[in-house]
Write a structure and sequence with these properties.
The protein is elongated. Strand 21 and strand 22 form a beta hairpin. By secondary structure, the protein is mainly beta.
Amino acid sequence: MPKLNTLLAGAMLFSLTLFTACGDSEDSTITAITISADSQTIKPNGSDKVQISAVDQSGNDITSQVTFSIGNTVISEEFTTTEMEDFEVIGRYKTIESNTLTISGVLQPTSLTLSMDKTEIKANGFSFVKLSATDEDGDDVSRFVTFLNGSDELYTSVFASRVTGDFSLKAKYDNIESDEVDITVTQSNSQNKKILIEEFTGEWCGWCPQAGYNLDLISKFSETVITVGIHNGDSYEYSNESGLRSKLGVTFFPDGRISRSTTGGAFNAPTIFSADFSRINSDIEDYLEEETMLGIAINTSVANGELTVSPTIKFYDDITSDIYLTVYLLENNLPASAQQNYFENLDGYEESAYYSEPAILSDYAHDHVLRKNLTDAFGDMIPAEDVGADMEFVPESIVTELGDFDEDHVSIVAFVHYDIDGNSKVILNAQKVKAGENISYDDL
């Protein structure tokens, strides 16, 4: 009769052999993977789901053992999206790859409903109504539809006007249109007032691309808004950046001032996205509804590599405080060398324009970049004897070398302002024109 320890040793050896055999079986039995889904189209509303599954070469379900991915991004077998595009999904088990499965985000509405957050706005060019559209299921499809004013397509999902009257707006997707909704635009206090937003930025700042994107949207949406990018710590650094930043009380990046307001004009990129201007909208609207005290005209010409700038100030009212004229030279379409992007796959910021972009933006271009000041950095004082209702101030023309600046991408910004210190609303009005062109007091 075998000894007890001999039997135990035999049992342990049998168990070890069985365990090893089972492990080898799991590795060796999967030689091919096929993935499929219960649907190859998905509604891009973030809640519709497509169930992905995987089988081996024998048809056995191995979904739990397979990793699914789109490019380098691992996804769940329950796939959702908010994008209307094609997604190529691959399944992997160790070194074995599956077929490529295409799942398409598809929108097929049968009806649209247009909604607005207000029915009356001021004719100042920036006071706006925000539009949204839902489909027959009540899902928000605003990002995918086209908004129309009559037959004219709107740039974003907001509507503003400098013209008074009643307007009919609607939403459209392919051949599906919503009912028209009416909006009334009433007289504004100021018809030719513009605001200046100065943004402090830099290529080292990974939050900054989104702020720049938002400001670009705002300036394209409304001719009332002029934006200036003031760079720090990169090849486009403005020579007087630190002094201006100190004067305006800017302490982080990105940050900005709306017409140099010290009463709430600050903003930062992580909290504002796309066409949602609510963070700064109230400051802009309040400023635009103040009476216009002056207008600015700018004439420019280019010859023999020199730019001549001739601003003129027309006063509509008396101004008793000291006021200053500042003239900036801006340049667009400047290539970035290494623009940082903190939004890459950042949880909670899926709506950022840069969520799906890499951490270094190699093809990024900077616009509205402040290259130099053509007056004193803090402005040239306008003589008190030249300031008064119905008077015009015509300073000497400014001549500057264009040098390496690209004439086609250069523009001039002129603005009149109080002294930065001790004023809550500093800039009285601003104007912008492309190099070689002219703009009058009332031109948009």
